[in-house]
Design goal:
The complex is a heterodimer of chains A (about 120) and B (about 110). With about 120 residues, chain A is mostly beta strands. In chain A, about 0% of the residues lie in helices and about 55% in strands. Chain A has no helices and 12 strands. In chain A, strand 5 (about 30-40) and strand 6 form a beta hairpin. Helices cover about 0% and strands about 50% of the residues of chain B. Chain B contains no helices and 11 strands. In chain B, a hairpin with a 6-residue loop joins strand 5 (about 40-50) and strand 6. The termini of chain B are far apart. The chains are: A mainly beta (about 120), B mainly beta (about 110). The interface of A and B includes residues 36 and 108 of A.
Chain lengths: ~120, ~110
């Protein structure tokens, strides 16, 4: 069975500081990996995804994530955060080639950017 | 572009009452989903519909029923609400159920069961 672990439920950080949100997954088959963001009182929206090819993927607003197959990780990073990045971030995994292909979400990490 | 529209946005029920959450998407997507979001538990899949005319159980289907009315609409029904069903419910859609397709979410329906 596949699973996703986000160990940090909340990450406080000062504006303009770097941040890393951690995500580890477990799957016996190949995976697609996603980061979704949820701003207050809104639904989730896709931030970035890894499907294949280059293991480093980037979003339009400065976030990036690197797929590390040996560590089964897909950590999200940003070199300098803004107040507007305050949101909850969800890592998600979808296996393919196996018996189940459902999208499984982690429990989320609240990024709280302080001035 | 409306995307995914959910109604109602807020609802308060008494234990034992029934209600239906409505969801409609205007992106001509084949697959639709209902999730519930609870603090510290992330999103859990209740039911999904891979294509018009099909529905399948997700992780937490007990106490819920769904109807895929047509390609656009996917409703979630609580027949006899319980306090454990207090949650925020999200409807989502994607072009296809399998593969790397992005999910598009509605803004959520906040349900409180007293």
């Amino acid at each position: 069975a596949q699973s996703v672990t986000q160990l940090d439920s909340q990450v406080p950080v000062f504006e303009e500081a770097p941040v890393e949100l951690r995500c580890n997954y477990s799957s016996s088959v190949s995976v697609y990996l996603f980061w979704y963001v949820q701003y207050p009182n809104q639904g989730l929206q896709l931030l970035l995804k890894y499907l294949s090819g280059s293991t480093l993927v980037k979003s339009i607003n400065g976030f990036e994530a690197e797929f590390n197959k040996s560590q089964t990780s897909f950590h999200l990073r940003k070199p300098s955060v803004h107040i507007s990045d305050t949101a909850e971030y969800f890592c998600a995994v979808r296996s393919y080639g196996g018996a189940t292909n459902k999208l499984i979400f982690g429990t989320g990490t609240l990024l709280a950017v302080q001035p | 572009n409306a995307g995914v529209t959910q109604t109602p946005k807020f609802q308060v029920l008494k234990t034992g009452q029934s209600m239906t959450l409505q969801c409609a998407q205007d992106m001509n997507h084949n697959s639709m989903y209902w999730y519930r979001q609870d603090p510290g538990m992330g999103l859990r899949l209740i039911y999904y519909s891979a294509s018009e005319g099909t529905t399948d159980k997700g992780e937490v289907p007990n106490g819920y029923n769904v109807s895929r009315l047509n390609k656009r609409e996917f409703s979630l029904r609580l027949e006899s609400a319980a306090p454990s069903q207090t949650s925020v419910y999200f409807c989502a859609s994607s072009e296809q159920g399998q593969g790397p397709g992005e999910l598009f979410f509605g803004e959520g329906s906040r349900l409180t069961v007293l």
